[in-house]
Amino acid sequence: MAKDIQENLRRQTQACALSEAEWAERCEDPADWEYFDCPQECR
Fold first, then answer.
1. Which residues touch 33 (CB under 8 Å, ≥6 apart)?
2. How many other β-carbons are positioned within 10 Å of the β-carbon of residue 13?
């Protein structure tokens, strides 16, 4: 269980390293915001 949480956290941390262009593309659809844990400026 704790391992899953760590893995999710690691993935989110990696996701935060995406370029602005990638965020703009991923966060275009509001339905994806929560799924991708988009930064506030994308919302």
1. 27, 42, 43
2. 9
Query: For the chain, what are the domain ranges?
Result: 2-42
Per-residue model confidence as pLDDT tens digits over 5-19: 777 666 665 655 567
What is the rounded (10 degree) CA torsion for 10, 6, 32, 21?
-10
Summarised one tens digit per residue, pLDDT across range 15-35 is: 555 677 777 777 777 776 677
Q: Return the pLDDT at 7.
A: 74
**Residue 42: Cβ within 10 Å count:** 16
